[in-house]
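Incident review: delayed structure delivery

Summary: a single-chain prediction request sat in the queue longer than the usual turnaround. Root cause was a stuck worker, restarted by the on-call engineer. No data loss occurred. The affected request and its eventual output are reproduced below so the record is complete for anyone auditing the incident later.

Affected input:
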Amino acid sequence: MSPVIRETRTGRALAGAAVVMTALALAPVSASAQATATQKAQAAAHETKQETKEAAHKTGNVITDSWITMKVHSQFVPENVLEKSDIDVDTKAGVVTLMGTVPTGAGKTRAVAIAKATDGVKSVNDRLRVVPEAEHGASATANKAGNTISDGWVTSKIYADYIDEDVLEGSDIDVDVDAGVATLKGTVPTQAGSARAAAIAKATDGVKSVRNNLKVVAKTPKT
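Output delivered after worker restart:
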């Protein structure tokens, strides 16, 4: 065998080894990149799902009075200016009525602004009263930390936890909290929805007990 041929084969062997070593070196990076890509895809899918659900509620007859009430309440929860508030939200034919108390004029203004900006709301009746450091009495209860929270806040928190629950889509739930006792009325499409609604309410800080009066009414298939 000529030296030239031997040298060529040796060079090919070395080149092949280099390719294998390069592939092995890159393998962890590729796996990591694939994992990252998967996480990003999952996050994007979740975000798209939420946007799709929100868009669905913005289309015509899909928006119901109960959904508006739920949405308004849920938007109250993260507002610092509404802490110590005790707000009741009532919606009829897209007209929202706000009743109860707020600790400051700024809280009153913010609550009304939130309601007015909610999809499906035609107008807002503001019947809120400004009561500095309001004493809620029987309409308040103590949370796990021993702090007093209003029934209105507990109601808002329950609604906030309902709004992204897939099993509760198509539900028409009315939440009434009195001295920490949450009463659930209205309809849900499945028994699983009824159980989930009750479980969420029971787990909400400030809730002492739950009366589940929800009725299971299956969705009517669209034709």
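Verification: The domain at 63-216 is CATH 3.30.1340.30 (Histidine-containing Protein; Chain: A;).
Action items: add queue-age alerting; document worker restart procedure.
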